[in-house]
Amino acid sequence: MLHETKKDTQDCYRKFVFKAAKATIKGSLFYGAYFLLTQYMAPIFTLLPTFQQSIETFMIAYTVLLVAGELTWGTMYHHFLNVAKALFVVGYLILSMNSGIIEYNLSSIRVTVDFRLILTSAILLSMLGVAKAVLQTVSYVSERAEPTAL
């Protein structure tokens, strides 16, 4: 009996180490891709200095949600974090785009760009991610609720 409990504990540790390694690799690759892209976007960051800080904040929060989701793989929390990640993208799009109207002041020129149509399209596409995550959550719950045949 004690031997079986010890073996179960070792299996739990092994699964958690695998999940942690997988989450670390995914998080590192995701953040590494961001780091490489920032090298190419450096000219944009000189024109819009707050843009880099905004993207950096988004990437950190999204990476944390990604890693937390991987660590909780196979549980209900994984699905909740997927929904939270999708809703975070929608909310961040709305907040960072100032509801679709961006104003930029050059030395003597004021430029106003209306991105509302693009923002609406991006939000609708992000809502597909929310719907997918919610449907995965419903599927997970229904699989857990179904009685198994003996």
Overview of this protein structure:
The model has no long low-confidence stretch (mean pLDDT 83). The protein has one domain (2-145). The protein is elongated. The two termini are 24 Å apart. A hairpin with a 4-residue loop joins strand 1 and strand 2. The chain has 150 residues and is mainly alpha-helical. It has five helices and two strands. 79% of the residues lie in helices and 7% in strands. A two-stranded antiparallel ribbon has the order 1-2.
Question: Topology, pairings included?
Answer:
Layout: H1 2-40, H2 42-47, H3 49-71, H4 76-96, E1 101-105, E2 110-114, H5 116-145
Antiparallel strand pairs: 1-2
Helix pairs in contact: 1-3, 3-4, 4-5
Following the backbone from N to C, one meets helices and strands in this order, namely: HHHHEEH
Beta-strand fraction estimate: 5-15%
**Mean pLDDT value:** 83
Radius of gyration: 21 Å
Compute the number of helices. Answer: 5
Strand order of the largest sheet: 1-2
Largest sheet: 2 strands, antiparallel
Tally of domains: 1
Summarize the amount of helix as a percent range.
Answer: over 70%
Low-confidence stretches: none
Give a brief outline of the structure.
It is built from 5 helices and 2 strands. The chain has 150 residues and is mostly helical.
Which keywords apply here?
elongated, 5 helices, two-stranded antiparallel ribbon, 7% strand
